[in-house]
Amino acid sequence: MNYIVMDLEWNQSGTRYRAERNGVRLNGEIIEIGAVRVNEDMEILERYCEFVKPECYQKMNRNVTELTDITDEMIARGRPFREVITEFLTWCGEDAFLTWSENDIIMIEDNMLFHGMDIDGLPKCYDMQLLFDDQITQEDRSFALSYAMWKFDIRPERSHDALNDAINTVEVLKRLDLSEGFEEYEI
User: Fold this and answer.
1) What's CA 43's distance to the chain center, in Å?
2) Apex CA 32: angle with CA 136 and CA 169, to 5°?
3) Torsion angle, CA of 152/99/56/113, rounded to 10 degrees?
4) Do the strands 44-53 and 79-80 form a parallel or antiparallel pair, or are they unpaired?
5) How many CA atoms lie within 13 A of 108 on its CB side?
């Protein structure tokens, strides 16, 4: 079985304004999708990375730029969300998503609904923070990916880059017992 380890970067409004459409108040607009397809041994088989040209929050929020180094020029060269997400989901096939927190899948769902797209066919998603907490910290709370990497003494790829964070997540997952974790996983 293969998995898609996915990470997103998103832009936010610089004001209290939030775009609203199709009953969805858009708190974050996806600007980058990064993912790797891995096998059960967490070996990277393929990579996917695309910038998305935002429709609502077209000017980068200063805080997001400081965190990600993503500029207005970079997102202006991106492709429309519907085009990128359709291509990405086709690339994913039926492989389950592994993400570091539930925020990424919530963001995909919100962005798809905002754009009037059906979310029923999205792959199953597992929050790897839960497995990390269950197996390593047992503190019943969420830890940043950077903490997990520090805990395992992993030298990270540059953080807050969608593809690099997907790769960083794979490095953490190599140190967890995924078989046990998936058996105990509660949705």
Assistant:
1) 19
2) 15
3) -170
4) parallel
5) 25
Given the candidates 3.30.420.10, 3.40.190.170, 3.30.70.360, 3.20.20.60, the CATH classification of the domain at 3-184 is 3.30.420.10
> How much is the average pLDDT of 105-126?
96
Chain-centroid distance, C-alpha 23: 23
Query: Bridge partners of 66?
Result: none
**CA 67 to mean position of chain CA atoms:** 15
- The number of C-alpha atoms within 13 Å of 17 and in the hemisphere containing its C-beta is 7
Whether the pTM exceeds 0.90: the reply is: yes
Identify the pLDDT of residue 179.
Answer: 87
Average of pLDDT values for 37-66? 95
Average pLDDT for 102-131: 95
Portion of the chain with pLDDT greater than 70, in percent:
99
Other Cβ atoms within 10 Å of 72 Cβ, number: 12
Q: CB neighbours of 150 closer than 8 A, spacing ≥ 6?
A: none
What's the pLDDT tens digit per position in 122-151? 999 999 999 999 999 999 999 999 999 999
Residue 156 scores a pLDDT above 60 = yes
Q: Which helix (H) or strand (E) holds 64?
A: helix 62-68
